[in-house]
Design a protein that fits this description.
Pfam families: ABC_tran (PF00005), TOBE_2 (PF08402). By secondary structure, this protein is of the alpha+beta class. It is built from 8 helices and 20 strands. The structure holds adenosine-5'-triphosphate.
């Protein structure tokens, strides 16, 4: 079976600006994909090429065996949810959702039944008779979702659909959207520039930068084993410790002392803030230690981050809860990390 969606070497330029440069991506049926990257990296351009609102300059887009590169949007077995919900203000919620089936030729009763079914899926079965203006932002977003899934597309494209919501509602909708997606079994491609949103929802994350895909992988792979410095810095907070050569196949951490196996060309060892511990007592054999001075303490409740100077580097050290919050700037500490567990990055 071919993948649900295959994107092969798709490029798109606007005048002299190359918005997409030979992008390849395969999406399987039922997958939740997040397209993640900074503003202007080409996420929306890619989504618009898939939807058919833009035509690539080169490359091919297929749904299963069908080449849809030049097919008009309405011929594609997919639908799009935009940031602005664009509901019809004068139509009831049920009529908004039933509009799609009606246009596709369903009779009034069938359209109504399918609208009710879609509204039930998003938890709004009681709200069919209301006007969109009588709904909260989160409820309007769910109506937009119901409207997009009512014709059962194979693939749903979502362009920053939660960005208009406040943070708490956004977090709740992330969980809800994930559950709805699992229930539907429809593949989602979700554009976001919010790394936490991508981590929380996606089966796989596609990290984009300047029109190219930097890395595609599970949230865990992206977080633990970023392919490039860009990915390491875009997703989470990395400590990038420079490496110095220490003989064939080995490198030394520039913090002082500790050596580790490293292929030539590796420039940094990455430690996430939670990989570095404060040593207070005995030290296991495989842990390297470094003296440091606390420069800053950031305690936000569930997490405390210490900024600790070790020579030329300032390392971020994360601790659960308020542990470490009592350390005053200027305190001396001993940091520990396992060199063998560090992830190495070439560029
Ligand atoms: P954001 O998160 O800000 O929406 P994005 O990753 O979705 O960013 P795109 O909208 O895909 O970025 O834009 C990619 C690049 O192409 C940007 O530099 C943008 O200015 C440019 N671009 C997009 N659409 C057009 C257009 N119609 N005409 C000219 N340039 C465009």
């Amino acid at each position: 079976m071919p993948p649900l969606l295959s994107i092969d070497a798709v490029s798109k330029s606007f005048a002299a600006h190359r918005a997409l440069a030979e992008v390849d991506l395969a999406v399987e049926a039922g997958e939740f994909i997040a397209l993640l990257g900074p503003s202007g990296c080409g996420k929306t351009t890619l989504l618009r090429c898939i939807a058919g609102f833009l035509t690539p300059d080169a490359g091919r887009i297929r749904i299963e065996d069908d080449d849809i590169t030049h097919a008009p949007p309405y011929r594609r077995p997919l639908n799009t949810v935009f940031q602005s919900y664009a509901l019809f203000p004068h139509m009831s919620v049920a009529d908004n959702v039933g509009y799609g089936p009606r246009r596709a030729g369903a009779g009034r009763r069938e359209a109504q039944e399918r609208a009710n079914e879609a509204l039930a899926l998003v938890g709004l079965e009681e709200m069919g008779t209301r006007l969109p203006s009588a709904l909260s932002g989160g409820q309007q977003q769910r109506v937009a979702l119901a409207r997009a899934i009512v014709n059962r597309p194979k693939l749903l494209l979502l362009d920053e659909p939660l960005s208009a919501l406040d943070l708490k509602l956004r977090r709740r909708m992330q969980i809800e959207l994930k559950h709805i997606q699992e229930k539907l079994g429809i593949a989602f491609i979700f554009v976001t520039h919010d790394q936490e949103e991508a981590m929380a929802m996606a089966d796989r994350i596609v990290v984009m930068n300047a029109g190219r895909i930097e890395q595609t992988g599970t949230p865990e792979a992206i977080y633990r084993a970023p392919a490039t410095r860009f990915v390491a810095e875009f997703v989470g907070e990395p400590n990038l410790i420079p490496l110095e050569p220490a003989g064939p196949g080995r490198a030394r951490l520039a913090l002082g002392g500790a050596e580790l196996p490293a292929a030539s060309g590796m420039r940094f060892a990455m430690a996430r803030p939670e990989d570095i511990v404060l040593i207070d007592g005995s030290v296991p054999d495989d842990v390297a230690t470094f003296p440091g001075t606390v420069e800053e303490v950031l305690a936000i409740g569930p997490l405390t981050t210490l900024f600790v100077r070790c020579g030329a580097a300032v390392l971020k050290v994360a601790r659960l809860g308020m542990s470490g919050a009592e350390l005053a700037p200027g305190s001396t500490v001993t940091l520990g990390l396992r060199p063998a567990a560090l992830h190495l990055i070439a560029e």
